[in-house]
Amino acid sequence: MPHRERRGVRDRWRRRPDTDGLSDGLTVAGDFAEIPVVGIVAAVIGGLLFVVLMAIWLPFAVLLVIDLVWLAVVLVGGAFARVVFRRPWRVEARSPEEIRVWHVRGYRAAGEQRDAIARQLQHGHNPLGETPPPLAH
After folding, report:
1. Could you read off the pLDDT of 63-99 as tens digits, one per residue?
2. 114: exposed, middle or buried (C-beta count within 10 Å: 0-12, 13-18, 19+)?
3. pLDDT of residue 77
4. 16 vs 59: which has the higher pLDDT
5. In whole angstroms, what is the distance from residue 70 CA to residue 79 CA?
6. CA–CA separation, 8 vs 134, rounded Å?
7. What CA–CA distance (Å, rounded) separates 1 from 6?
8. Taking the CA of residue 91 as centre, how many other CA atoms within 13 Å lie in the half-sphere pointing to its CB?
């Protein structure tokens, strides 16, 4: 669209040569002839905003990473200790009335025990297991 100066939008945003020699190139013209000044101001404001947001967000991100590393260490260490020290795995069968518990050494053996208990329950048998004491409320 032509402007009242008979120039289009593209021509208004282009830099015009200094014809009268009076301008030193650092002034901002009425139609923003010096766009880099606006860019520098936007970059400074964006940089300050970035620094403020990082100052707020970075401590939480560091704490999250520390928590995730700690969780991974505990999980891997716990599984390693259970395998190395041959701690028994707890296999549990629950019903609304009671809970039965079996302690089985070895991960594979615990899985086999679980499957055997499930087969017995499907066939209507009552598998024997330890009955833990009732939970205190």
Report:
1. 999 999 999 999 999 888 888 888 888 888 887 877 8
2. middle
3. 93
4. 59
5. 14
6. 86
7. 9
8. 21
